[in-house]
Amino acid sequence: MRLPARLVSLTAVTAASALLTGCFASTGTDGDAGEGKRIRVAHMQPPRSGLSPLSDDAFKLSRWSTAETLVKLDADGNAVPALATEWEQSGRSWTFTLRDDVTFHDGTELTAQAVVNSLTKAAAASPKPRILDGVELTAKADGDNRVTVTTAAEDPLVPQRLSSPQLSILAAKAYQGKTVNPVGAGTGPFELTKVNGTTSATLDRYDAYWGGKAKAPGIDVKFVPDGTARAAALRSGEADIVEAIPVSQAALLDEELITEVPMPRTNTLYLNTDNGVFKDASLRAAVREAIDAESIVKGVYESRADVAEGLLGPALPWAADLRSDVQRAKAGKADGQTVTIGTFTDRAELPEVAAALQQQLQKAGFKVKLDVREYANIESDALAGEFDAFILSRATVLDSGDPAAYLYSDFASDGSFNISQLADPTVDKALKKAGETNVGDARRKAIVEAEAAVLGTDAAIPMLHERVIQGDAAGVVDAAHDPRERELVTVDTYVK
C-alpha cells in the first residue's frame, strides 16, 4: 500500500536531513540573472578521481555544464555540433572545424592546439577512457581552428566517441600536475570554482560563455551516497534537484516532484570466468537458471523496472527485433559450492538485489556470502577479479550512444571494465566485427550478434533494465531528464 509523504517517520526524515544541514550555500537572488536562485543539487556518487575527466567523474562535469566536448549526441544518438561546428572523414582521419570565439574559464582561447592537448592526454592515459578501448587515436592541429583525428584502423564511430565526457576539452592549466584538475578549466556556461573533496563542489555562472549567459547564477553540489538522505533533501526543501531517488522512497514523495526516465541501463550479474567456482561454465549456467528476475523487479523495484531479455534493453528497441535464440551450456549442480557476491550501496536497490540473489542461489544449492560497500571502495577489487560474482548497474550506451563500446569495454579480452575476466576468442571476434561495421542496420545486426556471443558464455547474466527516478523541486524550471546521464543542469535551467 502506498503511504502519503506526511506519514513518513519524523525521526527518519530528521536524521536523513541532518546529513545535508549546512551543505548548500545561500540561495539568494542574483541581480543579473532575472530568474534568481543558485541551484542546489544532491548527487548520488562522490568523485572517484578528484573530478578528473579521464575517469567516470567526467559525467559530473558534463551534468553540471562545465566541461564540453567537440560534439554532442541528439536524442537518436547522432553526432551534432558542440565545440566543433562541422567535420569530414577521409579514410582513417576525421577533420573537425572548431567554433569561433570560445574561451576557457581561465580566459584563454579555444585553439586547435588546446584540443590536441586534451585528446592526446586522454589517449595516453592509463587506464584509457572506456570510449577508447581498442582504439589507437592521435590528434594533430591543422591551422588554428581545425583538428585532424586519426585512428589506427578506419573507425565509423569517431564523432560519437568524441562526444564522450571523458574526452572533454580543457584549458592547458588543467594538465600541469600528475592529475587532471578541471577547476576553472572548462568552456561551459558554469565554471567549477571549488571542490571540497568528496563532500561538495561549487560552480558559478561563466558570463562569457559562447552559447549565451546561463539563467541560474550558479550551482551548489552536495554528494549524498545515502538514498534516503537524498529523498529527504527533496522533501524538506534542502535540495532543488536530486539524482537517483531510490524506488523505496519514490512512493513517499509527491508524484509531481519526481520523473521516471527510462534508462539504457542494465542490472547485470557478472560472473568471474577466470578463477574460482564460475570458471566452470555449467555452474554459470546453474546461476542463470536459478535467477528469478521477475520477482526482483516486483519485490525490489516495485515494478519500476523491466525484466531483461538481453544486455540491451527497451531504450534500444531495435535490439529486441534483431535478437534470436542463444546457445548456452547446460546447468550443472552447485553441490554446496561457496561463492562471494559483491555490490555497492550507492544505488540503494543493489544491496536488496544482492539479498534476493543470495536466497535464490542458496535455494539452488550454492552457499553465498555478500560483500557490500560504497562503490569507490569496491570498484578496484571488482576489476581485479576478487569476487566470484558482482552485481552492477551498467549504462549500455553511456559513452558513445552506441552499445558496441560498452560491450567491448566489459567483455573483450583487453576491455578496461572486464569484471567477468572474460577472454573468449569467439566473443572477441564478434566484438571486433561490431566495432568495425559502418553505422546503420548492418552495425545493429553485428552488435546483437556480439551480445549473443557474450550471453552464450553466461559471463554476464542480465536481470533487469532500470528506470532512474529524478527529483525536481516545485520551483525548478527546465532541468534535463537525460537517459544517458550526460545532462542535468543546462544553460536554461533555473529555480524560481
Detailed description of the structure:
By secondary structure, the chain is α+β, with helices and mostly antiparallel strands. It has helices spanning 10-18, 58-63, 112-124, 158-161, 227-236, 247-250, 281-290, 293-299, 317-322, 349-363, 379-383, 403-411, 425-436, 441-455, and strands at 39-43, 71-73, 79-81, 84-90, 93-98, 137-141, 146-151, 190-196, 200-205, 218-223, 241-242, 258-271, 305-307, 338-344, 367-373, 389-395, 460-472, 476-477, 494-495. It is 25% helix and 22% strand. The chain is globular. The strands form four sheets. Strands 1, 8, 9, 10, 11, 12, 13, 14, 15, 16 and 17 form an eleven-stranded mixed beta sheet that branches. A four-stranded antiparallel beta sheet has the order 4-5-7-6. Strands 2-3 form a two-stranded antiparallel ribbon. The longest helix is centred in the last third of the chain and has 15 residues, at 349-363. Mean pLDDT is 90; it is low at 1-23 and 25-34. It has three domains: 7-65 and 188-240 and 473-495, D-Maltodextrin-Binding Protein, domain 2 (3-Layer(aba) Sandwich), CATH 3.40.190; 71-175, Dipeptide-binding Protein, domain 1 (Alpha-Beta Complex), CATH 3.90.76; 262-467, Roll (Dipeptide-binding Protein, domain 3).
